[in-house]
Amino acid sequence: MGTVLLVALAAVVAAVVVTGLVRAGRREAEAEKARLAEEAQRQARRSLEAVWAMDDREFEEYVAQLCRRDGCTEVERVGGSGDLGADVIGRLPDGRKIVIQCKHYAKHRTVGSRDIQTFNGTARAEHGADVPVFVASCVFTKPARTFAARHNLTLIDINLLGFWNNGTRLTSLLDLDIGRSGTNRKLHPDHD
User: Fold this and answer.
1) Cα gap 5→43, rounded to integer Å
2) 125: pLDDT confidence band, cut at 50, 70 and 90?
3) What's the chain's Rg over C-alpha atoms?
4) Total Cβ atoms within 10 A of residue 113
5) For 85, phi and psi rounded to 5 degrees?
6) Contacts of 160 (CB under 8 A, 6+ apart)
7) Gap between the Cα atoms of 66 and 135, Å rounded
């Protein structure tokens, strides 16, 4: 009887120890996952220093190149005077027409609702966009993101642009919930 009790007690102790180790492992894995996500965001932002150094035309061509990399076809940089809000036009891999407005602003600026509203008025009506996308080298204001969500516009801010730059496919970015993604906090001009 004593041996059975001793074995049962050892089994309970072993179960408690294993449970504690599993919980500690999960906490450690969650902490590592959060650390890696934060590091990925920092790395993406660091790699964008060259983007902030581009002029407007180079920025538009850079966005066009990212589209081509991700399998878009018929991609043209069409930005310039009188472009009616279209800087890059092409076809997604599934054939839908994509129209992209690019705003190359300093990292501490924001894109407001007025710019998004203007783009919304021309992307589909003037250019026949199936998928209107607004790409910025900064962040969007909260009202801009709210408007874009209501009108089914895709916004790619500097944070998402960093991930796109580092290999995330454009089609993955098109499915994000704009109303809930991103941040409207301006970056400090000297922010890493």
Assistant:
1) 56
2) very high
3) 24
4) 17
5) 85, 5
6) 168, 173, 176, 181, 182
7) 12
Q: How confident is the model at residue 46 (pLDDT cuts 50, 70, 90)?
A: low
Residues in the chain, total: 192
Residue 73, classed as helix, strand or coil, is strand
d(Cα 65, Cα 81) in Å, to the nearest integer? 21
Where residue 192 falls among pLDDT bands split at 50, 70, 90? Answer: very low
Nearest to 168 by CA among 58, 59, 176: 176
DSSP-H helix ranges across 47-137? 49-53, 56-69, 113-123
Residues 79-96 have a mean pLDDT of 88
**Nearest alpha-carbon partner for 72 in 131, 134, 160, 122:** 131
Task: Quickly tell me which residue has 């589909």 as its tokens.
Answer: 124
Query: Tokens in use for 45?
Result: 């932002």
